[in-house]
Structures are given as C-alpha cells and as structure tokens.
Amino acid sequence: MIKRMSLISAYIALGCAATVLPVLISIYIANEDVARREQRDLSLYAEKAMMRTELVTYQGFAAIADLQAEHAEPCSPEYLKRAAHVIFNYRYVRDAGAYGDGRYLCSPLLGEVRTQDVELPPPRWRSNDGYLVWFQQKNPLSDLREDIQIGRNGEYVSIDPQSYVDVMDPAGRAIATINTELNSIVALSSGADPDEMLHAWKQAGRVDSDEWNYAVARSETRALGVVVKGRRTSLFRDWPGLLATWLSFGVAMGAAFGWFAFKRISRQVSFQASLEWAISHKTIDVVYQPIVNLATSECVGVEALARWNLNGRDISPNIFIALAEQHGLIQSLTDLVFDQALQDLAELLRSRPSFYVSVNVSGEDLRTPRFLNLINARLAGTGLRPAQIRIEATERSFLNADVTRQTIAAFRSAGHPVYIDDFGTGYSSLAYLQTFMIDVLKIDKSFVDTIAQDAASSIVAPHIIEMAHELGAEIVAEGIERSEQVEYLVRRGVQYGQGWLFAKAMRREELLAWLEARRASHAPAQPAIQ
Ligand code: C2E
Ligand code: MG
Ligand code: MG
After folding, report:
1. 317 Cβ below 6 A of ligand 1
2. 194 in helix, strand or coil?
3. Using a 6 Å cutoff on CB, does residue 389 contact ligand 1?
4. Which superkingdom is the protein from (predicted)?
5. Ligand 1, atom 20: nearest CA belongs to which residue?
6. Do 190 and 55 sit in the same domain of this protein?
7. pTM assigned to the model
8. 14: pLDDT confidence band, cut at 50, 70 and 90?
9. Same structural domain, 164 and 222
C-alpha cells in the first residue's frame, strides 16, 4: 500500500513538473522576447522623438535667418511686417522680434516696447555657433506662458516647448528633450516627471524598474538629446497567480496520472492476486480435448487444458499462463491441472490402458525433477501406466538446454512420452532439436491452417511435416477444422490430429459422453457442434 501511495505521489510530482516546467520555461522565453522587442520599439520611438526635436530646433534657426535676411531696421514697420510673416510661415514659431541690452525691443505680439523697459534676463545657454537659448522663458504678456526662446545677433524667436515633444503616439509614452551640455530639460511631455526623466537620461536609459523601460537618443549635430519612457509588459508580473494556476493544473494532471496508474496497478495486482487465489483454492477448471488417430478416427488420448473464469469472464489461457509464469505460480498450476486430470480420468485411463492424457508444462517445470517426482508419487498404486501420462513442452521452454535435456531424459526413461508443442513456431533448428530425443511433435495450428489453402501459404505445411518426419517422431497436427486437412495430413504420413473438426476441449462429463457416443456408433469422427 505504501509502495502504491508513494508511486501515486511520484506520479503527481511528475505530473506537476511535466506540466509546470514547460509552461514556466515558455513564459520565461516569451518574457525575454517581449522585453527585447519592447526595448527595440522604445529605442525607435526615441529616434523618432529626436528627429522631431531637431526639426523644431532647425525651424527656429531658419526663422531667425529669415528675419535677418532683409536687413530691415529693427522695429521699423517693414521689420515688424517681416516678423509677422515669419510667425505665419514657421509652424512652431509663436513670436519673433528684436531684443537688446537685456530688454525686449519689439515683436508683432508685444508691439513696440522699446520705451517700456520689458526685461529679458541673460540666456541660459550659448551654443558654439552663437545661438542663445532661454529655457522656460516667461512671456512678458502672460505669466502662464513659458516659451523656449532662441536668439542671435539681437533677434529672437519664441517656440512652444510642447512642439518639441509633440510626437504622435497612441500609447502616449513620455518624452523629455535634454540639453546635453547642461544636462537639463528643455521640454517635457505633459504628465511626465522631470526628475525621473533626467535621472533616466543620466543613466543612459538603464534604469532598474519592473514597470518601465527607458530609451535615449542623441542628436549628431546639436547638443540635444531625448529620453523616452514606456510601460513594460511583464508576463511574470503576476507570477504568483500564474504559478498558482499552472500548479493547480499540474496537480490535477498529476492526480489524474496518479489515479490512472493506481487503477492500472491495482487491477494488475488484483489480477495476479485473483489468479493466486484461484490456484490455491483450485477454482481453475480443466478441460480435455480429444486427440484422434487420423487414419482410423479412433480417439487415442486427450490434452488437458486449463480454464479460468474470473467474475463471469473466461480469461484466455495465453494470458493467465503467461501471468502465472511471470509471478512464479506456474508450478502450482501445473500440479493443479495434473491432479485434476488424474482425478477426472483415472477410471477411464484404467479401463483403457492405451488411452492417455497429455499435460502442458512450462520451462520452470523442466528445470528440476520436481514435477516428475510428483507424477511418480501420484501414480504409485493406481495401476496406471507411465505412458498414459504425457508431457507437452513448447520449444521456448527448452531454452535452458542442459538442465532441460536431463529432465526430459528423466521423463522419458520413467516412461512418459515427451511432446514438442507448437512445433514450427519456435526458433530452434532441427539439429538442435535432434539433441533432445523427443517422442511426438505437435505441428502448430498456424501451419495446419494453411493446408489446402492458396498456393503461396500451402508450401509451408509440407515443409514443416517433412522436418517433423526428419526428427523421427510421431506427429500430431493441431487445430484441424476441415476434413480436407485430414485427407492431406494422412497422405503426408501424419498419424494423429486434434481440433474442432473432432471436438472442442470438454469437461470430464462431456468428454465421457462424447467418447461413449463414438464407441456406440462406431462412427468415424464427425465435426463438433460449434
Ligand atoms: P496448446 O497447448 O497448443 O493448446 C492448443 C490450443 O489450441 C488450445 O487453446 C485449444 O483450445 C486450441 N485449439 C484446439 N483445436 C482448435 C481448433 O480446431 N481451432 C482453434 N481455433 N483452436 C483450437 P487454449 O486452451 O486457449 O490454450 C492456449 C495455450 O495455453 C495452449 O496451447 C497451451 O500452450 C497453454 N495452456 C493451456 N492450458 C495450460 C496448462 O495447463 N499449462 C500450461 N503450461 N499451458 C497451458
Ligand atoms: Mg499443448
Ligand atoms: Mg499447441
């Protein structure tokens, strides 16, 4: 029981491992793949944002150049007209005008403010090529509005910082534009945290976070950079839930496997136990199939065959004999069949001294003289002749040649003829079989079946019969079902036969009645009623 339980537990553990492991491995691989794709996608997004930043910056430069192109007197009517054109023509430019001595001078938006002393603080940054930049520059007209202002040689343009980060993105990923010399933020998409974005920029995007990915891009021509942030899809984020789901699935699978294994094992165990019980309680039946002289139709003996009915079902001898052999029960079974046969047929055998019963034995019975000793003991004082008890052994049971040869010789010298059963189905060569000194060969049904059939298969039977003759033994043909087979076999010198044409295997009473009926009628063998 403990062995069974531990086997079931092992199956459950195996089921869990077999179910959960591949799932976890695939999730891990998928997760890695998703992470790689997302990072690549985010880097592409950073490149795109960088292009946008450069585009806006260069537009600012182009607008200043355009303002200076006409060399109009700053703040003259022509100049202001020109500035209005620039504002109109350049999409990202919100104002354009003149400044000097720390003051705004004029623009189409501010008007003429030279006399009003509208202060312009010093720029935050100056580029190598002479551009001045004011970040988050408050517009003199409104406290709410902060622009990026780019100036050069007394002229400036104001740009809405949102233009820098205004990239179409359905996922709404955060962008920050960075001045790479100052390491400070130029523009930030709405809702983004400036400290976080700056930190990510300084780490070149390599921020340890389970939730977010970061990527950076740098301009090749200007001191500009971009950092972007996107949400990370982790298949492992909900790993406890995931594991719980798959583990319960694994347990269910394992339990199913375990249950299946349990059923199988217990069926096998109970099957074996039932056979053991049937043998020890002698509930195995023995039936007898007549063996007839083919030329005279006289029944010369019978073969004892074991029958087992388990819960109303007849189990094939091929199955339970193999089971008995596997589990060391075969010797008790052989004894049982022999004892039963002797009990059933002793009277008949005594009344017909030439009549015999043949008993099937297995390899195990031929390893020692045990069964021979049992036969001798049982026959003592019964008045039966040893030749009335015959032994059938298949070629397979001869495998252990040296031991078997001795036992077979002992059976024969004790007067029990020995038969090779199922002749032709084993692998033994004629030369090998000749070393055994056998009395009778039983040609297997599979060869007898081919007799008087189509040409291709009927070449086998004569060959087998010839081999049997060569061994110098008498022959019994097994499984005769048609009268043509009898004619053929007699022609080929086969003396004996057994099969449904004459009779199926029968219980003692049926056999006795069958024998009686034949004797009364003196009739030749008739096909058995099926
Ligand atoms: P086997 O010793 O060659 O027995 C002959 C088998 O052929 C029997 O099958 C018998 O019922 C069947 N048979 C005989 N004539 C005909 C026929 O005309 N047509 C057909 N279709 N079948 C026929 P069974 O009783 O099922 O036994 C199968 C095998 O199981 C036997 O083959 C024998 O090897 C083994 N066996 C049966 N009883 C015992 C036993 O007590 N001890 C051992 N060791 N083996 C046994
Ligand atoms: Mg047999
Ligand atoms: Mg046979």
Report:
1. yes
2. helix
3. no
4. Bacteria
5. 479
6. yes
7. 0.56
8. confident
9. yes
